[in-house]
């Protein structure tokens, strides 16, 4: 925030800076609008008639997390990618689930619920609105990526708390690492251990520092810590209403 305020002040001092700022905001808005247009044109929106069991889960999570209005949730064909994201445009919130991840809805519904809750946590914490306030800092090498990784850790914990199923959270993150066909065969302890052995390398560290998301083994380890030390994180399996102020 401090870095962004300094940049905004410097831009406002210069008339040319204000022009560049307005141009940058306009281009960002147009590109974002085009992306959402593509999603609306091609994605499948969850409704009472379209995948009603998952739509009901979204409504349940939004009620528990006190998110109103309920965001529009779309499923989008993803060419094999396992991903999901939340976004906001002109006061409306959206959640997009890539189709390969959405296929969890037939057998791994708890894991899919965790993924949805993670994206809803971004909305609950108003991360998209905050990103507009600190936009210059997000463009700063390393600084913006560090903030993004912190947001991901926050949403992991909130999602685990509101779904009340840390094991499903761990499975959901493991699915992102290796896919739904093999995740049950992964030795989680060894996965975390081997990743920690490689964490100190130069390129491994650099890759982590320029990434918007923390390494998956770190995210899984954090959930395990949360499960083993519930009093430290304020996490209670049966208490969905416990909000984590991270």
UniProtKB/TrEMBL annotation:
Family: Belongs to the peptidase M48 family.
GO CC term, one of those recorded: plasma membrane
GO biological process: proteolysis
Subcellular location, principal: membrane
InterPro entries named in the record: HtpX_protease, Peptidase_M48
Cofactors required: Zn(2+)
Keywords of this entry: Cell membrane, Hydrolase, Membrane, Metal-binding, Metalloprotease, Protease, Transmembrane, Transmembrane helix, Zinc
TM annotation in the entry: 6-31
Co-factor binding comment: Binds 1 zinc ion per subunit.
UniProt-recorded Gene Ontology molecular function terms: metal ion binding; metalloendopeptidase activity
Domain Peptidase M48: 49-134, 141-226
Localization of this protein: Cell membrane
One protein family per Pfam: Peptidase_M48
Lipid bilayer topology: Multi-pass membrane protein
Domain of life per record: Bacteria
UniProt-recorded name of the protein: Peptidase M48
């Amino acid at each position: 925030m401090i870095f962004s305020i300094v940049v905004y002040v410097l831009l406002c001092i210069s008339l040319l800076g204000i022009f560049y700022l307005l141009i940058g905001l306009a281009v960002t808005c147009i590109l974002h609008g085009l992306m959402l247009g593509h999603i609306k044109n091609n994605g499948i929106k969850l409704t009472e008639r379209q995948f009603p069991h998952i739509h009901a889960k979204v409504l349940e999570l939004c009620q528990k997390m006190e998110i109103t209005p309920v965001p529009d949730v779309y499923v989008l064909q993803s060419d094999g990618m396992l991903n999901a994201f939340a976004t906001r445009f002109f006061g409306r919130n959206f959640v997009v689930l890539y189709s390969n991840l959405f296929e969890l809805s037939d057998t791994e519904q708890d894991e899919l619920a965790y993924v949805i809750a993670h994206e809803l946590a971004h909305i609950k914490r108003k991360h998209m609105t905050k990103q507009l306030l600190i936009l210059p800092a997000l463009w700063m090498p390393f600084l913006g990526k560090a903030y993004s990784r912190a947001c991901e850790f926050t949403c992991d914990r909130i999602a685990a708390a509101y779904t009340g199923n840390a094991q499903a959270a761990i499975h959901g993150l493991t699915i992102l690492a290796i896919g739904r066909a093999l995740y049950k065969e992964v030795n989680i302890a060894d996965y975390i251990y081997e990743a920690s052995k490689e964490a100190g390398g130069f390129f491994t560290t650099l890759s982590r520092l320029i990434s918007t998301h923390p390494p998956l083994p770190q995210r899984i380890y954090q959930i395990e810590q949360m499960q083993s030390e519930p009093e430290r994180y304020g996490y209670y399996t049966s208490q969905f209403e416990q909000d984590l102020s991270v």
